[in-house]
TrEMBL record:
UniProt protein name: TetR family transcriptional regulator
Keyword Cell wall biogenesis/degradation: no
UniProt entry keywords in alphabetical sequence: DNA-binding, Transcription, Transcription regulation
Organism of provenance: Demequina litoralis
Stored PANTHER family: HTH-TYPE TRANSCRIPTIONAL REGULATOR BETI, HTH-TYPE TRANSCRIPTIONAL REGULATOR RUTR
DNA-binding region: 35-54
PROSITE patterns: HTH_TETR_1 (PS01081), HTH_TETR_2 (PS50977)
Pfam families: TetR_C_14, TetR_N
HTH tetR-type domain sequence ranges: 12-72
Length: 193
């Protein structure tokens, strides 16, 4: 049986734009008060198109966080990037320059992540991928196996440090996020080394 399609051009959806629109709606109404239908309507896409890109509202919140981590991960695997915390902190500085117009949207997303156990839980799988990459960064510097207890514990500590300090920044600081994260990572580095 074939699926009924409306005639005309297929909808073109920009997932980044949809995620920005969703964050704006969350800021206006609160996370719990916004439905996927609300997001589809405001974005000018069908519900089906929205669900093609995002499984749920939490995915809309995490999208930018993990897109930023993917850019960081690309820098970390670059042979020119120094291993260990020094390389991570330098790569983070290069990756995390948040344009001024995006800062408030970033704050909204991070506040939701910090306030909602449902949203936080939805990002756990991605945090595991992040921990793996950060464990590799530490393992390179310490010349240890990436699966060693030391590399895994350090990778998890760094993941937690990044997330906790980003969420803290969203509600407590007017500084650029890169400054807050760098300060938190420097503190962690003193404890790891």
């Amino acid at each position: 049986m074939s699926e009924h399609r409306r005639p005309g051009r297929p909808q073109i959806a920009d997932p980044d734009q949809i995620a920005r629109i969703a964050a704006t709606l969350f800021a206006e109404r609160g996370y719990a008060a916004v439905s996927m239908d609300d997001i589809a309507e405001r974005s000018g896409v069908s519900r089906r198109t929205l669900f093609r890109h995002f499984e749920n509202k939490a995915d809309l919140v995490w999208r930018d966080f993990f897109a930023t981590y993917r850019r960081l991960a690309e820098r970390l695997v670059d042979p020119a990037t120094e291993p260990g915390m020094a390389g991570l902190r330098a790569a983070m500085r290069e990756t995390l320059e948040v344009p001024g117009e995006e800062e408030e949207i970033t704050r909204v997303r991070l506040r939701i992540i910090g306030a909602s156990s449902e949203v936080f839980a939805a990002g756990v799988r991605g945090l595991g991928d992040m921990t793996e990459g950060l464990s590799r960064q530490v393992a390179k510097a310490e010349h240890i196996d990436v699966d060693s207890l030391e590399a895994r514990a350090a990778g998890q500590a760094i993941t937690g440090c990044i997330l906790a300090s980003a969420v803290w920044w969203a509600s407590h600081s007017d500084e650029p996020i890169v400054e807050v994260l760098d300060r938190a990572l420097a503190s962690l580095e003193r404890g790891i080394s």
